[in-house]
Amino acid sequence: MTDMLIRGLDALSLPTDAAPALARYGSLLLEKNKTMNLTAITDPEQVAQLHMLDSAAILGCAHFQGKRVLDVGTGAGFPGMVLKLTEPSIDLTLLDSLNKRIDWLSQIAPTLGISHLTALHGRAEEFGLMPQYREQFDIVTSRAVADLRILCELCLPFVKVGGLFLAMKGQKAQEEKDAAGRCISILGGQLKKDYVYQIPGTDIVHRVVVVEKVRETPGQYPRRFAKIKKAPL
Ligand code: SAM
Fold it and tell me: Strands 91-96 and 159-169, how do they pair?
């Protein structure tokens, strides 16, 4: 896995020194996946490409150095853990509604050389209303959590005015973007140019929908999840 990661990080113009830690993370993931449902991908090379390199690629779409970053619905740590391992100056917070995943991430962080990490168990729509998290992050990321309209209501409240929300999407992003214009505007966001990249070693092209926070999010958002789902903005 390490060689593939070195080649992939290099192709993404990223420093390759994180490759051993990313490979170790991949091994821990596959080991734990035998007893806890963390990923559907079980081939080490695919883990390297479809989890590690896919996550690392988004470092190219914004300045992450020294930034306060939140990963919403991080699951087994994607993209958040990969961002921190590749760019250690990030002040990282992970959030997920499944406690056993958050516990596992807290346990493995020191093994991977991460000394400071905030791992929160809870629901985004509840944490986004709390003053200690609301509009406190420079960059909020999310991958494979929900449709863009739902995701924006879950994630934009956490972003500082002037900060970014990065939604990692597949090729169908355009449809979701077309439906999300009004919602993004209500929540204080403004769509920027997508960041499009190819995962090294594959022909898979992915897209990051980039939303800049230009105004504070009105206090009534996020709503309760049932409401967000039933009547997306
Ligand atoms: N981001 C990871 C990835 O790309 O592999 C995990 C994706 S997984 C399909 C979705 C994750 O989002 C799950 O771990 C789930 O517990 C979490 N999640 C879903 N809704 C959430 C919410 N409202 N607040 C926090 N976490 C949520």
Answer: unpaired
Which amino acid, one-letter code, is at 68?
Answer: R
Q: What is the pLDDT of residues 214-223, one digit of tens each?
A: 999 999 999 9
Maximum C-alpha span of the chain? 49
Which residues, including other chains, have CB under 8 Å from residue 102's CB and lie 6 or more apart?
74, 94, 96, 119, 120, 121
| C-beta of residue 44 within 8 angstroms of C-beta of residue 53 | no
Best residue among 33, 142, 145, 153 to mutate for probing ligand 1's pocket (most ligand atoms within 8 Å of CB) is 145
What are 196-229's pLDDT values in tens digits? 999 999 999 999 999 999 999 999 999 999 999 9
Does residue 187 register a pLDDT over 90? yes
Would the pLDDT of 149 be above 90?
yes
Residue whose CA is at the smallest distance from ligand 1 atom 10: 145
pTM of the prediction?
0.97
Nearest residue (by CA) to ligand 1, atom 18, is 73
CA-to-CA separations, 90 to 109, 113, 151, 220, in angstroms, rounded: 14, 14, 22, 30
CA 188, CA 175: separation in Å to the nearest integer?
21
